[in-house]
Amino acid sequence: MNDEEVSRWFCAEVLPLEANLVRFLRKHWWEAGDIDDLRQEVFTRMFEQGRRQPPPESALAFMLTVARNLLVDTARRKQVVSIEAYADVDALAIGVEELTPERHHAGRSELRRLQAALDRLPARCREVVQLRKVDGLSQREVAARMGIAEDTVERQVSKGIRALAAALADEDPPQQAGSWAAKLRLNVRKTNG
């Protein structure tokens, strides 16, 4: 494409996505003062890429990929990289192509199955698990709210997570059973400390 065509594409398809880009950069970059420079660099890379080859079908997917790659490059160039920054960059490894309607549907199905398994727990156990694992309250906060001992909270969480793991492992097809059970077993190990 010539510069005029690239400019038209850029103005029509890329610039309207600037807010998405800034949100993405703020979420995944630890130095707020760098955001404007990073945004400008993403735009420059996209414009240059538009000169070399036809524009991609999805400007948003392309922009997020360019931004992710830029963040990875920038983090590597920094002399001192905080552990938080490294973890955030690793979290970006989820590809845009993985966020498909099929994955969205599968995730919703898994959530429904988890809710059904949670609903089958005894009332007190279910409440403890919800407060602890869903609402994120501490063991002490759950104990105070429910008027029970902290060790009771710990036992109920362990019992609930094991029951959920067993229920989900029984319901899952063989190729998926391990993932849910493994995640929930990991939570049990963390809970039991």
Automatic annotation (TrEMBL):
Residues 112-164 form the RNA polymerase sigma factor 70 region 4 type domain. Keywords: Sigma factor, Transcription, Transcription regulation. InterPro entries: RNA_pol_sigma-70-like, RNA_pol_sigma-70_dom, RNA_pol_sigma70_r2, RNA_pol_sigma70_r4_t2, RNA_pol_sigma_r2, RNA_pol_sigma_r3/r4-like, WH-like_DNA-bd_sf. The keyword Transcription applies. Signal peptide: none annotated. Belongs to the sigma-70 factor family. ECF subfamily. NCBIfam families: sigma70-ECF. This is RNA polymerase sigma factor. It comes from Pelomonas parva.
